[in-house]
Amino acid sequence: MARRVRLVLFGLMSCSMAWLCCCGSVSEAAEKPPNILLAISDDQSYPYASAYGTTDIQTPAFDRVAKSGVLFHNAFCASPGCSPSRAALLTGRNTWELEQAGTHASSFPQKFTVYPDILEDAGYFVGYTGKGWGPGNYKVSGRKRNPAGPAWQKRKMKSPPGISSNDYASNFSDFLKEKPADQPFCFWFGATEPHRSYKNGIGREQGKSLADAFVPKFLPDTPTIRSDILDYDVEIEWFDQHLGRILDQLEQAGELENTLVIVTADNGMPFPRAKANCYEYGIHAPLAVSWPAKVPADRDVIDIVGFIDFAPTMLHAAGVKIPKVMSGRSFLNLLMSRRDGQVSEDRVRAYSARERHSSSRFDNRTYPIRAMRTPKYLYIRNFRPNRWPAGHPAGFKKDVFGYYDIDACPSKTFLWEHRTDPRLGQYFEWSVEKRPEIELYDIENDPANLINLADNAKYAAIKNELGEEFEAYLRRTGDPRVLDGGDIYESYKRYSHIREFPAD
Q1: What is the model's pLDDT at position 26?
Q2: Which of 11, 178, 331, 443 is the most buried (most CB within 10 A)?
Q3: Is the peptide bond before 197 cis (omega within 30 degrees of 0)?
Q4: Is 43 helix (H, G, I), strand (E, B) or coil?
Q5: 339-392, pLDDT tens digit by residue?
Q6: Other C-beta atoms within 10 Å of 126: how many?
Q7: How far apart are CA 15 and CA 25, in angstroms?
Q8: Adjacent-strand bridge partners of 380
Q9: pLDDT at 115
């Protein structure tokens, strides 16, 4: 193997091989710094990609990245909602460490440094297309541009109903043409798919079969639900088509070999009990990563990684010093390994959280959750169990699409219309009824998170052990919810629409 050179863009410096075990400040990088491409869909759960064996969907571009690099089976979003999850990815910090940026549709304080700015200062050409950080108001904090970088949004195209007309791949082509020949690039491709709304029935129109739809167990297996999932599949495939075009452009330009490609989603699928919930289908994300010049191909890894690990990994690969304030750790060692399965024994925890999602309660109140995922268990703490998790029921008195923390959709309407059905009513209750303070789920035996073991005496020791560990981590990282109750979250301004509700 050719000799590798340790590179930092501000100069050469030595470092030990300790970077292989954790997130050392400088990586052993290629002589030419890698380009970095992040492709992130909007509301896509694991395992909805064909590389995972899900047969109702075809994602050849995602599969291509996985085949040429690493397919991760345990990647977790920092939040089950878009703007806080994206803020954590950008900063390498947990959402509760980000003040206003840790909740939905608020602001993004300028003091929180983001990886595109760090890479730009280190000599990278930076840009994004589609959805960067958002929704929210970054300008009010003094930022001059979206935290994802300068926007490339001019190109449009004809698209199916419900799908963005943004020609993401052509916008990337414009970006690539503008990139100086001697600069590496850092690009954020943020699709708005598969965020709702969808054209009802587009999946069947495009030849998909109801029989093939993969229905999670927390949803009823009915034609309405199956059709809704097929429509969701179509939008994921649209994202994948643009990813494929972008990969082809990189290959034609001779840049793919030295590009670190990361493909994931910001949070889970927009269905009841998924998005906006810290259950598996709200926080478990697809993830494929490749870097053909450096990363051994065609591997499956089950180590747990979180969104706060992405920024340190990108900086590590680029040979740029990782800020000490980042709570995440580089997983470059996982990528560089030749092993499958569990590569590193210390990759066994990921954390997620939510505060406010939509405007769903009186006085814009939040529904605060913290979650910790281990290889076997999901531990959840609901800090305000007296509140309604999906939104105040009063919403239905004015609008059939109440419970606003669940996106309006055929699946939601079906659950509402069958809420009193003896066979189907439980699905509605699972999505909207109040929850206990502590929830504990056995992921191996209950991936749909329907059997809460928190009050099961057989699991008392496990619950206590995980609870103490989690509490210690939240305190160590300064979570207001455990330090002083976290009422500060109720004061953060929401810049999106605010609804009126009666007092609880």
Answers
A1: 34
A2: 331
A3: yes
A4: coil
A5: 999 999 999 999 999 999 999 999 999 999 999 999 999 999 999 999 999 999
A6: 23
A7: 8
A8: 371, 439
A9: 98
Angle at 44 between CA 39 and CA 49, to 5 degrees: 80
- Note the residue count of the chain: 504
Nearest residue to 56 (alpha-carbon basis) of 170, 213, 181, 201: 213
In which region does residue 136 sit, left (phi positive, over 0), alpha (psi from -120 to 50) or beta (all else)?
A: left
Residue 400 structure tokens: 């059939």
Q: Are 134 and 82 in contact (CB under 8 A)?
A: yes
Tell me the C-alpha distance between 40 and 263, whole Å: 6
DSSP string for 172-200: HHHHHHHS-TT--EEEEEE--TTPSP--T
* Phi–psi pair at 373, nearest 5 degrees: -110, 130
Q: How far apart are CA 153 and CA 171, in angstroms?
A: 6
What is the enclosing helix (H) or strand (E) of 288?
A: strand 284-290
pLDDT in the model for residue 150: 98
Helix (H) or strand (E) holding 463: helix 460-476
- 223-252 and 410-417 helices cross at what angle (nearest 10)? 160
User: What are the beta bridge partners of residue 370?
Assistant: 353, 381
Answer yes or no: are the C-beta atoms of 139 and 213 closer than 8 Å.
no
Q: What are phi and psi of 415, to 5 degrees?
A: -60, -40
Nearest to 312 by CA among 113, 50, 17, 30: 113
Residue 58, token pair as written in the block: 């075809």
Q: Is 117 exposed, middle or buried (CB count within 10 Å of its CB: 0-12, 13-18, 19+)?
A: middle
pTM, two decimals, is 0.93
Is residue 127 within 8 A of residue 187, CB to CB? The reply is: yes
Mean pLDDT of the chain, nearest integer? 93
Look at residue 29 and tell me whether its pLDDT is greater than 60. no
Alpha carbon distance 180, 429 (integer Å): 56
Query: pLDDT per residue over 395-424, tens digit each?
Result: 777 777 789 999 999 999 999 999 999 999
Beta-carbon contacts of residue 484 (< 8 Å; ≥ 6 apart) = none
C-beta pairs of 345-350 under 8 Å, 24+ apart in sequence? 347/303, 347/304, 347/305, 348/303, 348/304, 348/374, 348/375, 349/304, 349/373, 349/374, 349/473, 350/74, 350/75, 350/76, 350/304, 350/305, 350/306
What backbone phi and psi angles, to 5 degrees, belong to 264? -155, -165
